[in-house]
Amino acid sequence: MNFSCSVCNNIYDSPKVPIWLCGCGKPLVVNYNWENKVKSIDIIEDELSLWRYKSVLPEVETKISLGEGHTPLIPISKNVYVKDETVNPTGSFKDRGMALAVTMAKAQGVKTICLPSAGNAGISAAAYCEAAEIECNVFLPETIPEAFKKETEKYSANLTLSGNTISDAAKYMLNNKEDEWFDISTLKEPFRVEGKKTLGYEIAEQLGWKFPDVVVYETGGGTGLIGMWKAFQEMQGMGWVKGTLPRMVAAQSDGCAPVVKAFQEMKKDTEFWENSHTIALGLNVPGPLGGKWILDVLSQSNGIAISIPEEDLLASTKDMNDITGINSSAEAGVVWSAYNTLLKMDWISNQESVVLFATGIERC
Ligand SMILES: Cc1ncc(COP(=O)(O)O)c(C=O)c1O
Ligand SMILES: [Zn+2]
């Protein structure tokens, strides 16, 4: 295993432990040496968590697992599916990333971690840290609903509130953190992406080792989109799946759409979105660290970024929940509305196979 920078391409064979950002300040990517190792499909059939895909994850002696992953792919028509991530141990897809990040942090001797969160990542980090006996410091915006605070504290994390968005909470954390705390913010360490990439492996397996034509993903910090794209490329490289890679769609609310703005203006990186607001709390990420990486995935996959009107969100979330029977939070409404808009634009045809996501449970 080695690490390369997602922006300047610097390679790190044996980086400082615990492994963090590139010297240039941008996220690192995990690369594996799979020659002679993984060629044919190699999964653990009776493992019903994301460790089913152990052969494509970092090797570790002790896994911190709460049974994350292996979630249903619900067909809502002949060729359209919703991946139900609300059934993960703490109610969101964040558990995939945290399972790997906390497993690796533990293996690297970390005693205390910290992170800012829009809500779900903090709950998930708290749960995995409790299981790993790592101290966990979660920084949330002051606007966070009570239910998120209660749930985070249930797993005995230390909670600090600051500002209106995850970016404000992150600023406060950086000014107040202790030196030895390990910062596992989105994309600051490379293993959350490795956990999230299992979404891509699972979808391909559930479709009979095929790629869908299109993936529509509610994009905040972008780890899910980036992780799935990495998985699709890995599977293609190993010959696990043949055929064209999916077109990736980043869906955002027009109350916070830095990726959509940069995509439309053909910029290489996102710019900070001032005065952001959306009821899809996980998408209130005005300045994603991986903005360039997200835009690269959209361009490599012939994908698109699309925003939907914030005022449509309540109704589209209800529609999505009525159709699927899932009690999903508003991020899923963003995806549902984006999908319907893309159908109307003929960017997606009725014949194409499409995967949508219910990334988290409605907590309020
Ligand atoms: C429910 C939900 N959906 C989507 C997202 C965005 O995830 P990502 O950072 O992978 O773009 C979040 C992040 O907080 C979330 O909580
Ligand atoms: Zn770099």
Q: Could you please describe the fold and organization of this structure?
A:
There is one protein chain. With 364 residues, the protein is of the alpha/beta class. The protein has two domains: 73-91 and 193-358, Rossmann fold (3-Layer(aba) Sandwich), CATH 3.40.50.1100; 94-183, Rossmann fold (3-Layer(aba) Sandwich). It is built from eleven helices and 13 strands. It has helices at residues 94-107, 120-132, 146-154, 166-176, 191-196, 198-206, 223-238, 258-264, 291-300, 313-324, 331-344, and strands at residues 2-5, 11-12, 28-31, 73-75, 80-84, 112-116, 135-140, 158-161, 182-183, 214-218, 247-253, 304-308, 354-358. 52% of the residues are buried. The model has no long low-confidence stretch (mean pLDDT 97). Residues 5, 7-8, 10, 22, 24, 26 line the site of zinc ion.
Unique ligands: pyridoxal-5'-phosphate, zinc ion
Strand fraction equals 15-25%
- Our Rg estimate from Cα atoms comes to 19 Å
Q: What is the helix content?
A: 25-40%
Which properties best describe this structure?
Rossmann fold; 33% helix; alpha/beta; binds zinc ion; four-stranded parallel sheet; single chain; six-stranded mixed sheet; binds pyridoxal-5'-phosphate
